[in-house]
Amino acid sequence: MTHRPRRLRQNAAFRELVSETHLRAEQLILPVFIKEGLTTPKPIAGLPGVVQHTPESLALEADLAVSAGIAGIMVFGVPDQRDAAGSEACNPEGILSSTVRTLRQQVGDHLLIIADLCLDEFTDHGHCGVLDENGNVDNDRTLEVYAQMAVVLAQAGAHMLGTSGMMDGQVAAVRNALDKAGFTDVAILAYAAKYASAFYGPFRDAVESQLEGDRKTYQQDTRNIRESLREVRLDAEEGADIIMIKPGLPYLDVIAAAHAEVDLPIATYVVSGETAMIEAAASAGVVDRQAGIMEVLTSVRRAGASIICTYWALEVSSWLRQRG
Ligand code: PBG
Hints:
The chain is an alpha/beta fold and 324 residues long. Helix content is 40%, strand content 17%. The chain is built from eleven helices and ten strands. The protein has an eight-stranded parallel β-barrel, surrounded by eight helices. Strand 5, helix 4 (139-156) and strand 6 form a beta-alpha-beta unit. The longest helix has 18 residues, at 139-156. Bound molecules: ligand PBG.
């Protein structure tokens, strides 16, 4: 026999020697939730270990993130007050901006503070934008609010903004607003292809989403990849710094294609429902939890996402440290 591929798999040293894909703590981002007025952290159903934070518990979490050596935390705010326009999103003293400000003062440049730039947590109808008189999401009026929100979050000290609303032209609108206000160094993590997915369930509980219906007029159709690559190209042309595909595991083909399409770093978000699936399978005793988590994250990495947003970021970084 000439070809014996098993020769390179005979022991751990050979397997390490030929390993192609490596997870690094420095490329993990931890999503976190802060809820206005909360006095004790509140667990989120379906996501063991994930909570709605108080300012105190979030400060501790940020310290853990710094010592874990992960890249950053992505902050989602849950406000007390919601209205049709999502006004709290642009309030410099609102829950998101004030949290970003405090966190940035705490961590400096030791951890990237990434703010979610979207209106869904702030609107009383739960959509990612403002509505027109017929109840449809008004793309261009939403862009004006995003532009304003971007400047407020940059002033608060965000290193990077996650444009997650899937409005047309959002990257250009945010880039222009940031540049005009002098924030040329604030980066844009562009959710280029964010699918209208069934896997956002636990997240919507976490942010107490008011949404009825769905987001199919703006988020991407599961059946399409060519359309997603168009979104990827548009975001790149509009000035995105990093391209995100979301969710992760069900869209490995899209991650791989985006990686081939543009020369920007590619990120993915292993979302709440994907996390809940593994946690549920692990607690049912049918999947080895640690091995399952590592397999999922290694797979999105192999597909081409160098940057991974994951609720497991702190735990995984401790496992990576143990392995040395
Ligand atoms: C919306 C947003 C969503 C998530 C992140 N940002 C959900 C949605 O579109 O309803 C989902 C993340 C997750 O499920 O972990 N701005």
